[in-house]
TrEMBL record:
N-terminal signal peptide: 1-20
Source taxonomy: Eukaryota, Fungi, Dikarya, Ascomycota, Pezizomycotina
Keyword Repeat set for record: no
CDD domains associated with the record: pepsin_like
Active site per database record: D103, D344
Family as reported in the entry's similarity comment: Belongs to the peptidase A1 family.
SUPFAM superfamilies named among the record's database cross-references: Acid proteases (SSF50630)
Domain of life: Eukaryota
GO cellular component: fungal-type vacuole
Protein name: Peptidase A1 domain-containing protein
Pfam families in UniProt: Asp
Length: 458
């Protein structure tokens, strides 16, 4: 199955040595976070951290292609236009502010450097001016210089786009935590189709993925930004993410929730929890699995690379109040097969096996239908929406109706809305934004586990 893997996921025959040999350092010198205990019934001790940064939710025009998708060549090309939202933070690089999209499915952090070359090709049409749609990039030289004797940084993608450049070192800061002299990739040539909001990508996955580089995909791994941060002792080896589903076109102040009076925001939080309301009784934990957990990838290592979990069950339930009252809340299917899924903030939809998703489509009233024009399943925008839950530990996290049937993603007639879960029997299976907007997700690299809690309705 190796041939089906993306450029970054082509299995190495020679397995790079682990870079994670150094034990987790105590966080004795870390800043004292806000004293908001979040000790749940299940006995977890996460606290809200002072090191949270708001993320801006950005909606993409249907034709634009999300950078995290471009990276991920192993998705079928027909799914290319499903990346209609992504999340942005302002990264402090040296003394400059660079907007980047946030991705938990890759590990490199890269950005363009001014002036960079944007190229176009004949297939863009004669006389087309190159337009990469990248925001302004890093200016001047990196304080830590260029790293000598490394192969160039090159990422190329199924849709023909690519970025290339080199590795250098600079201080990178997020929410008051600095990764000193961080290795990052600087791009000076690109063939790209962005929407002008970002100038690069922040990769939050494990060091292992950085080894899958170069022609042999076997470079020595390096510590990505988040790894450098926790190894310095500045934070515990934990980050967490809360995604809001409300639009926030670059307005950093967020929006007031009319029912709760709270500002709803998306956050990336370092070392603890983001400042959002969760249902404490729902905290659940599950281990993070190594690359081997997805057999189709062909890895022979159990090294951790991405945030792969195995939910305990997927459940489809009839909506309470549906026509035949004996069906109220009835479980349609409950699949307890342990399927490896990526937790991926870089994916708009969730991707699950047909055996799980087909009963969900059928449970819409009227049932969801495949639309060849959109290449995905759609249901009437006014359909009765079933309940769909992902069980992790003792808790079942239900996707909100607005995530299951996305009123903002319509077909050209305006009557059909996109279902937030899509079927694929080709791994990786993914729980993306359509799931993550319902929870706070804690990525605990130190304990090799993920924790989730349901967000209180916002
Ligand atoms: C940013 O840092 C560079 C290199 O250290 C320095 O030359 C420049 O003056 C700084 N700019 C600002 C606005 O501080
Ligand atoms: C960057 O480095 C190059 C080569 O070392 C040098 O010629 C150039 O003046 C530097 N640019 C800035 C803005 O410091
Ligand atoms: C940001 O949102 C707030 C609250 O909705 C609003 O008052 C403010 O004008 C917005 N700012 C910008 C720059 O759009
Ligand atoms: C549960 O899902 C798995 C994975 O797709 C599938 O192989 C299996 O047949 C499903 N089980 C049931 C009872 O539908
Ligand atoms: C849903 O909308 C369609 C038109 O888009 C309409 O014909 C139909 O009656 C509506 N169904 C319900 C249950 O409101």
């Amino acid at each position: 199955m190796k041939a089906s893997l993306s450029s970054i996921l082509i299995s190495a025959f020679w397995l790079a040595p682990a870079s994670t040999a150094s034990p987790l350092k105590g966080a004795s010198n870390r800043d004292t976070p806000g004293p908001l205990p979040a000790v749940s019934a299940a006995g977890f001790h996460d606290v809200v951290t002072a090191h949270s940064i708001p993320m801006r939710r950005q909606k993409l025009a249907p034709s634009a292609t999300h950078p995290a998708l471009q990276r991920r060549a192993n998705f079928p090309a027909r799914l290319r236009n499903v990346y209609d939202v992504y999340y942005i933070i302002d990264l402090e690089v040296g003394n400059q502010t660079i907007p980047v999209s946030v991705d938990t499915g890759s590990s490199d952090t890269w950005m363009v450097q001014e002036p960079y070359e944007c190229v176009s090709f004949w297939w863009d049409g004669p006389g087309t001016k190159p337009n990469c749609g990248l925001g302004s990039g890093f200016q001047g030289n990196l304080s830590g210089g260029i790293i000598p004797d490394l192969p160039p940084f090159v990422r190329s993608y199924v849709d023909g786009t690519f970025v290339s450049g080199f590795y250098g070192r600079e201080n990178v800061a997020i929410a008051g935590i600095t990764a000193h002299n961080q290795r990052l990739a600087i791009v000076n040539q690109a063939y790209w189709h962005g929407d002008g909001q970002t100038s690069g990508l922040l990769g939050l996955a494990y060091p292992y993925l950085t080894s899958l580089d170069g022609s042999d995909q076997n470079q020595p791994p390096y510590d990505p930004v988040f790894t450098t941060m926790w190894k310095s002792g500045a934070i515990d080896p934990v980050f967490s993410i809360a995604l809001s589903r409300s639009e926030d076109q670059g307005n950093r102040t967020g929006r007031e929730n009319p029912s709760s009076g709270k500002i709803e925001e998306s956050y990336l939080a370092l070392g603890g929890l983001p400042p959002v309301d969760v249902d404490e009784a729902t905290w659940a934990r599950t281990p993070i699995h190594g690359m081997m957990a997805v057999p189709q990838w062909g890895f022979e290592t159990d090294e951790k690379g991405m945030y792969i979990i195995k939910p305990d069950a997927f459940v489809v339930e009839k909506k309470a109040g549906s026509k035949s009252s004996e069906d109220d809340g009835a479980v349609v299917t409950r699949n307890t097969t342990q399927i490896p899924v990526l937790i991926d903030v870089g994916a708009t939809l969730s991707y699950l096996p047909k055996a799980i998703v087909n009963p969900l489509y059928a449970a819409f009233d009227p049932p969801a239908q495949y639309m060849s024009s959109g290449g995905l399943f759609y249901a009437a925008c006014n359909a009765t929406i079933p309940r769909f839950g992902v069980q992790i530990g003792e808790s079942t996290f239900y996707m909100a109706p607005e995530d299951l049937l996305r009123q903002t993603a319509r077909d050209p007639t305006g009557e059909w809305c996109r279902v937030g879960v899509t079927d694929t029997d080709t791994p990786p299976h993914v729980l993306g934004v359509s799931f993550l907007t319902n929870v706070v997700a804690v990525f605990d690299v130190g304990k090799s586990e993920m924790r989730f809690a349901a967000r209180n309705k916002y």
